[in-house]
Amino acid sequence: MTRYRAVFPNRYIGVRAVALWLVLVVAPLSWSADLEPDRADVLYHRYEGDNATIDGPALLVRKRLGKQFAVTGKYYVDSVSSASIDVVLTASPYTEERKEAGLGVEYVNGKTRVTAGASNSDEHDFTARSAYFAVTQDLFGDLTTVTLSYGRGDDQVRRVNDDNFEEDVDRQIYGLGISQIITPKLILGTTIEGITDEGYLNNPYRRVRYVDPTNAQFGYSFQDERYPDTRSSIAVALRGRYFLDYRAAVHGEYRYFTDTWDIVAHTAEIGYTQPWRNNLIFEARLRTYRQSEASFYSDLFSRVDEQNFLARDKELSRFSNTTLRLGVSYQFAQNGWGILDRGSVNLTYDRIAFDYENFRNAPAGGPVGEEPLFAFDANVVQVYFSFWY
Amino acid sequence: MNARSVRLFVVFCAVAMGGCATVDPWVKPYERANLADPIMAFDRDPISSSYMHHVYESREGARGAAGSSGGGCGCN
């Protein structure tokens, strides 16, 4: 631990004490899996971008029951007020609320951890139910951790003002995760996740536009989207974190994604975490994302029913985005306070810039098919309190 | 795959896994203090990362493999 003293004399007494405690107390326990400490998080989130505001609270509580069991409960609310480009052209601005609740259980036995859970999400025109099961095993002197997971989803899609419309989606999720300690300062992880969907995958409100010379006002008309009723995707991610001697961390991540709709996406992220004194942690991240368009996507079809499948969702277009995140965390009551072992208050700000390469801002006007390309910036703020008890 | 191949495969796996069970960890437990530091966690605040995954999955075509790969430093 002398490196702290060498770099910052007299500054990291507390850090040294924590590190020493970890070596003397935590490390000897590492030969058996253990439950994470009890914890509660309360969060307020707010997203603003493209004339849409989505905000609300979230709650996550974790409680141990004995030495081998733990339960987790979560509650999440999205309050949506939207006049985004998705609704300006073919629908009306709207407000709605989504509520999600979930319950999970965890069981630890030796080096094996079993988790299972279920959640339910409700909106007035959409219900999503899901369940998951995962087994995690520590191997090779706990240098390697392997997780196998399986999840199942069941969505019900409805449409406002149409009581006769109700469709289903069945989803299955298969996952494999491995984390590996490489050196005393470097840990790597990889995740592979395959997802299959079957059912009604359209957005029931979205429509495509096609060239229509008989429409004298706009020069184009609309028809309903038609998606394939199956989709399979696979994503592979590699991530790593490296500890710097003056007590800081850098991390990097890359994810490759491809699916049966011909979307190929690349995601890359780098970040830096810097503690300050004994109670502040600063963080900065840069994330970039790029994807190709789905095979049946077009901003403007040449005629009605041009092909079997039709989509004009900007989420299926060719686009990229870049996120810059800044965050700060203040640790309080580190020596305990009442029933609390410790706590933190956290603030994060993400600025996301979206640039679409073949989705046009049709409401902006101009010659048909030559309207300006769409772009917007979003601001995402999170404020949350974490309590360990 | 015939029965002999299956038996050979099972024996191979048993031998291979047996070797794994006795592997000597090249990073000892007492060398994992830095990895146990909270700043080294893949997912320090699950409530926050879960929300950001939701933000991205709602606006991007890609999905999956966005969370941490489980486990950690083996320091629990």
- Average pLDDT metric of chain B: 77
Using a beta-carbon cutoff below 8 angstroms, give the protein chain pair with the largest interface and the number of residues from each chain.
A-B, 88 and 46 residues
Number of strands of chain A: 18
**Tally the helices of chain A: what do you get?**
3
Low-confidence stretches of chain A: 1-32
**Sheet bearing the most strands of chain A, described?**
16 strands, antiparallel, barrel
Q: Which geometry of chain A do the CA atoms define? A: globular
Determine Rg of chain A (CA atoms, Å).
Answer: 24 Å
CA-based gyration radius of chain B: 20 Å
Structure description:
The complex is a heterodimer of chains A (389) and B (76). Chain A contains 3 helices and 18 strands. Chain A is mainly β and 389 residues long. Chain A has a 16-stranded antiparallel barrel with strand order 1-2-3-4-5-6-7-8-9-12-13-14-15-16-17-18. In chain A, strands 10-11 form a two-stranded antiparallel ribbon. Chain B has 76 residues and is mostly helical. Chain B is 46% helix and 0% strand. Chain B is built from 3 helices and no strands. Chain B is flat, with a radius of gyration of 20 Å. Classes of the chains: A mainly beta (389), B mainly alpha (76). Chains A and B meet through helix 2, strand 1, strand 6, strand 7 and strand 8 of A and helix 2 and helix 3 of B.
